[in-house]
Design brief:
Layout lengths: L2 H13 L2 H8 L3 H15 L4 E3 L4 E3 L1 H24 L7 E8 L5 H14 L2 E8 L2 H9 L5 E5 L7 E5 L4 E8 L12 H4 L3 E5 L2 H11 L7 E6 L2 H9 L4 E5 L8 E5 L5 E2 L1 E6 L6 H21 L1
Parallel strand pairs: 3-4, 3-5, 8-9, 8-10
Antiparallel strand pairs: 1-2, 5-13, 6-13, 7-10, 7-11, 7-12
Helix pairs in contact: 1-2, 1-4, 2-3
């Protein structure tokens, strides 16, 4: 498969019309149709269902669309990594971030790095730990800042200096909103929303103890913003980390006994990294080392 043909395929998939796609790609319609037919022959599958009005993707076509988008993104990222200037550090650092207070530490580190290397720019992806790890594995991200608990056996890493605080996001009219802290007994009988990550579920289950299986789970979520909207509309209270932001008509109440966890900046072991990524990781390691020495 050629990248050029994958780009043709994605344009047709987007427009659902070969004539319009050909115009946007500045190729003739017969040329585009021939390229698509050859792609189907090469893969041995039917990618489109054709009609007189439009074309739609088959199940195999939907799979190729996802893979083609990843391949073209990876190709562009590789191009940027290799196009480094000899005189000054340049290129892109692709970073995935969870919703964490530790992003403040990471952003200050990036600001310092870009101050010294203004030709380096950052591509930021927001997601949970699982999606960030998937994108690192696929080469779409250079590194990721992810919350613990997380399996990092396959990665090199540094621990962020900040601790993340667990608690519950509740509606301002909730009886829990007036409390300084909440314990497991306070949450019994409440409609609750949890992260959909199993490792997080286990962490919270250990904090709750034997009554965890009796809790009423109203919803599961991966990122907090949409869950906060559901809290605002009184669907339930969201078990979550404390963030340096606020959502209308809600408030965060920390757990008691306190529950804290860390976060880690991870990247693949023994993998080629661009000069920009290599230099940034060296700065992150040096930063953590200096913090550790200061605390001794």
């Amino acid at each position: 498969m050629e990248l050029r043909v994958l780009n043709y395929f994605l344009m047709v998939a987007r427009e659902e019309n070969i004539t319009k796609a050909a115009q946007l790609l500045h190729v003739t319609q017969p040329t585009l149709s021939r390229q698509l037919m050859q792609l189907e022959e090469e893969l041995g599958v039917k990618l489109f269902q054709r009609s007189s009005h439009c074309i739609i993707l088959t199940e195999e076509g939907m799979l190729l669309k996802r893979r083609a988008q990843e391949l073209l993104t990876l190709a562009e990222k590789t191009k940027q990594d290799l196009m480094q200037k000899d005189t000054q550090l340049s290129g892109e650092i692709a970073i995935g971030c969870g919703e964490l207070q530790s992003v403040d530490w990471l952003s200050k580190l990036l600001a310092r790095f870009q101050g010294e290397n203004p030709l380096v720019h950052v591509s930021l992806y927001s997601g949970n730990a699982d999606s960030i790890k998937d994108r690192i594995e696929n080469g779409l991200l250079d590194m990721g800042l992810v919350p613990e608990p997380v399996d990092i056996t396959k990665y090199s890493f540094v621990h962020a200096p900040q601790k993340e605080i667990w608690g519950v996001l509740v509606h301002k009219d909730s009886p829990l909103a007036g409390k300084r802290t909440v314990g497991p007994a306070d949450l019994a009988g409440q409609s609750l929303m949890f992260s959909n990550r199993d490792l997080v579920r286990d962490l919270i289950a250990n904090w709750f103890g034997d009554d965890f299986d009796d809790l009423h789970v109203a919803a599961r979520y991966n990122l907090l913003y949409n869950a906060a909207i559901m809290v605002r509309n009184k669907i339930g209270a969201a078990i979550c980390l404390k963030l340096d932001c606020s959502y209308d008509d809600t408030c965060f109440v920390p757990f008691s006994p306190p529950l804290e966890s860390g976060s880690v900046l991870i990247w693949k072991k023994d993998q080629f990294a661009s000069p920009a990524v290599t230099e940034f990781l060296a700065l992150a390691k040096e930063c953590i080392k200096s913090i550790s020495q200061d605390s001794v």
